[in-house]
Design a protein that fits this description.
With about 525 residues, this protein is of the alpha+beta class. About 35% of the residues are buried. Helix 1 (about 5-35) crosses helix 12. It starts with a helix and ends with a helix. Strand 5 (about 275-280) and strand 6 (about 290-295) form a beta hairpin. The chain contains 18 helices and 8 strands.
Length: about 525
């Protein structure tokens, strides 16, 4: 490689990495916990839900109750399940009946409990699992700024990965096996950065690509909408199969009785290992009422097996069908594969745990990259003012990033002690606590102290999480296991293992520092 190309790759890799380092750490740290979003939600609520993507609901009973509360006539109703929790998402459009009162013409979204049919707004049903999930794509920043910011961070991360590979291409194999912990500090950080970076390379590449796609795809498709579709985005969404078929409202009440349960069961029986994930009712209570039942084959049977059936309620006849075994095309594969590999929802707990570990490794790669940058600039010929500036930048960076661990552990304890927390209360606890910790470590002006006490405090709080759960709910991790409450059991044991490892690391680092 010529010196010119080496310098281009080196500076591109360094600059792109440093610029995005803080936000990228937040994305990967929160994203690592997001693999267990469903488990965290159920642990927080002390509920146990089947580990399945299928909707488990008595539709007839639920709709009967909702009809008394909302008046469903003429509405389009979508019931969907996006996670393994007891509640479902329900979106109701305003009624198409022009003679209906004004309040019935307003749409609404809420969560529906599948056991008692109680409803709760999104804010009322907000949870720590949802918070961490949304934090990993910066959704707490007003839309669309947070989404686009996280998308462009993912794009810059992709540049950093590609330039890093090109930079180390000739020495990738030899350097991968080299680790010299007794050498000078820069060598230690470089070896860790290179080795761990290579271990997590496929994982990081996949998440850089899919993260950028999910967050900035609107900007990607905008030119296509303007040129190929002449600004008609509805036509684009229709061709991409993001919209459902529309059926005309007849303004006539449906006199004959009907059962949504029967038709959903009928749709499910069409294919073996078919799970219902979305049910949509159009023109509820009208003579032209239709039911769309959508689902997927188990991923163990077919990785992309999306199917749907549409019924006309008046006579129960099937008017459309998409066979998940034979009719999935390239478009279905692209949409589903990107989703699946990003969320890692097809390999059970083994894949989630591996993904979490790789996510935390990526966090360490990010930190080691910043430390390389600092050590490389800590030279005798550098002006004292510039050296102090560099140290200050890294001090702020470490304070922000490392304090995420103790504040996340504290949030688990508070979420259990004061359940249910409102969305605003959860925001206050996490963000204000995070800010105070960051300010404290910045004022302390000691990077070793920040590292040590973030690990120790996070570990102690982490070990208190299962104890808090046991005292508050009586569900100690051994009793949860016996009662087959696997999600609750998993979070308790997860924190015991994680906190034990980080506590061991903290004291190991302290002993090495004392020996030196």
């Amino acid at each position: 490689m010529s010196n010119r190309n080496y310098n281009i790759y080196f500076h591109t890799h360094t600059v792109s990495g440093i610029v995005i380092s803080v936000v990228l750490f937040i994305i990967f740290f929160a994203g690592s916990f997001s693999f267990f979003r469903d488990e965290i939600i159920n642990w927080e609520r002390n509920e146990s839900a089947p580990i399945s993507r299928e909707i488990d609901l008595n539709y007839d009973a639920a709709l009967k109750k909702l009809d008394k509360e909302y008046i469903l006539h003429g509405r389009n109703i979508t019931i969907s399940k996006h996670s393994n929790e007891r509640s479902l998402g329900v979106y109701m459009e305003g009624t198409k009946d022009t003679l209906a009162p004004k309040e019935q013409k307003e749409g609404s979204y809420f969560k529906l409990d599948t056991k008692n049919y109680k409803t709760a707004t999104y804010e009322e049903s907000y949870s720590l699992g949802e918070f961490l999930y949304r934090l990993h794509f910066l959704a707490q920043i007003p839309y669309p700024v947070g989404y686009y910011l996280s998308g462009f961070i993912a794009l810059f991360f992709l540049f950093a990965i590609v330039t890093g590979v090109l930079l180390h291409w000739k020495k990738i194999v030899s350097n991968f096996y080299v680790f010299r912990p007794k050498e000078k500090l820069k060598t230690l950080w470089t070896d860790a950065h290179t080795a761990l970076g290579m271990i997590g390379l496929p994982f990081q590449f996949v998440y850089a690509v899919t993260g950028a796609f999910f967050m900035i795809k609107l900007l990607i498709v905008a030119p296509a909408v303007m040129t190929l579709y002449k600004g008609d985005q509805d036509k684009l969404y229709k061709e991409l199969e993001y919209t459902d078929p529309e059926f005309k409202f007849d303004y006539k009440k449906l006199a004959a009785p009907f059962s949504i349960n029967q038709l959903v069961t009928k749709a499910k029986s069409n294919w073996k290992d078919f799970e219902i994930t979305r049910v949509m009712i159009q023109n509820y209570g009208d003579t032209n009422m239709h039911l769309l039942v959508e689902g997927e084959l188990l991923s163990t049977k077919k990785f992309t097996g999306i199917g749907k059936v549409v019924y006309r309620i008046a006579d129960g006849k099937e008017v459309a069908r998409k066979n998940p075994e034979t009719q999935n095309q390239y478009l279905d594969v692209v949409k589903n594969v990107l989703y699946r590999i990003h969320f890692g929802d097809y390999g059970g707990y083994a894949l989630k745990i591996i993904s979490f570990v790789l996510g935390i490794i990526t966090c360490f790669v990010i930190i080691s990259g910043v430390m390389i940058w600092l050590v490389a600039r800590d030279k005798k010929n550098m002006p004292e003012k510039k050296r102090r500036f560099n140290e200050g930048v890294v001090r702020i960076y470490l304070a922000i990033c490392l304090s995420m661990y103790p504040i996340t552990a504290l949030a688990f304890i508070v979420a259990k002690l004061f359940h249910p927390l409102t969305q605003s209360n959860l925001y206050s606890i996490y963000f204000i606590g995070w800010l105070l910790l960051t300010i404290f470590f910045i004022i302390k002006k000691n990077d070793a102290f920040t590292n040590k006490w973030c690990l120790i405090s996070g570990s102690i709080l982490g070990l208190l999480i299962p104890i808090t759960n046991g005292i508050i709910t009586g569900n100690w991790f051994w009793s949860s296991f016996i009662q087959n409450k696997i999600q609750i059991f998993f979070i308790d044991v997860f924190w015991i293992v994680l906190a034990s490892i980080t506590l061991y690391v903290a004291f190991s680092l302290n002993q090495k520092r004392a020996a030196n």
